[in-house]
Amino acid sequence: MKIVALVPARSGSKGFPHKNVARLGRKSLIELAVKVGLACDSVQSVYISTDSMTYETLAIQAGAQSLGLRPRDLASDTAKSVDVALDFLKRLAEPADCLVLLQPTSPMRHPEDISQMIEILKNQKADAVVSVEKLEEPHPNKLKKITSDGFIAPFLEHTSSEVPRQFLPEVFKLNGALYLIRTDVLVSARTFLPQKTLPFLMKGTINIDSEQDYQIIQGLLKTNNIQIYGV
Q1: What secondary structure letter does DSSP report for 77?
Q2: Rounded-to-integer distance, Cα 218 and Cα 107, Å
Q3: Which DSSP category does 163 fall into?
Q4: Range of 37's domain?
Q5: Is residue 228 part of a domain?
Q6: Alpha carbons 118 and 101: distance in angstroms, whole number
Q7: Within a domain: 229
Q8: In 3-state terms, what secondary structure has residue 189?
Q9: What is the dihedral of CA 189, 193, 124, 117, to 10 degrees?
Q10: Bridge partners of 101?
């Protein structure tokens, strides 16, 4: 089974400018994403997809390969990761069986996580495996919305915030750390979450969407409360 990894890293982030090259320790988030992919024995190669020559050079120096800068229409803030991945697969010279998506802003993962996900995909004959994390609070059943009349109402119909937490169903969120999918399924379904997607449970991860997230993860690193591969 040929497995390749893709690191998507456009340069035009607005909320946290250039967050993909923010540094943890001596390495940028792009470098950390490349390194964790290369450290997994089951992954044959790691590629960078970016609109920035600077980002591309940084990734190549870390060991990644590049098929050239991505098209302009895939470099906007409305571009979807799935479209970036499909464009990459079209340009890939030798077809791959599976694709691992390594988003730089979700650095709390290890090579062993990727290996375990690959084994799950093989042994359980799934189409995809995606990392998730249990969501404790706020539980979706307790969320509210404000109606057009200005009144508070349940965000989800037929739910109540007065039900004790222990009686509520478990819920999980995508943590953004790892997406693994069969490439033929990705092409046909055009989603990283096809029908036969299995969960890979993680905990305690942080996705860096804002400068505050970045400061939190830096603080945890300094106090040795977390470990990030490559830092």
Answers
A1: T
A2: 12
A3: S
A4: 3-134+173-222
A5: no
A6: 13
A7: no
A8: helix
A9: 120
A10: 6, 179
Final residue before a domain boundary, out of 170, 196, 214: 170
Q: What CATH number has the domain bearing residue 15? A: 3.90.550.10
SS3 198: strand
In sequence order, which residues have a C-beta less than 8 Å from that of residue 183 and are 6 or more positions away? Answer: 89, 95, 96, 97, 98, 99
Q: What is the mean pLDDT of residues 57-71?
A: 96
Peptide bond into 111 cis (omega under 30): no
119: how many CB neighbours lie within 10 A of its CB? 12
Q: Are 59 and 51 in contact, with CB atoms under 8 Å apart?
A: no
Residue-wise pLDDT tens digits, 154-207: 999 988 888 888 888 899 999 999 999 999 999 999 999 999 999 999 999 999
Other C-beta atoms lying within 10 Å of the C-beta of residue 152:
10
CB distance 127 to 194 below 8 Å:
yes
Tell me if 78 is assigned to some domain. Answer: yes
pLDDT of residue 117: 98
At 26-38, the pLDDT tens digits run 999 999 999 999 9
Q: How far is CA 215 from the centre of its chain?
A: 19
Q: What are phi and psi of 166, to 5 degrees?
A: -65, -15
- Contact criterion met (CB below 8 Å) for 109 and 227: no
pLDDT value for 44 = 97
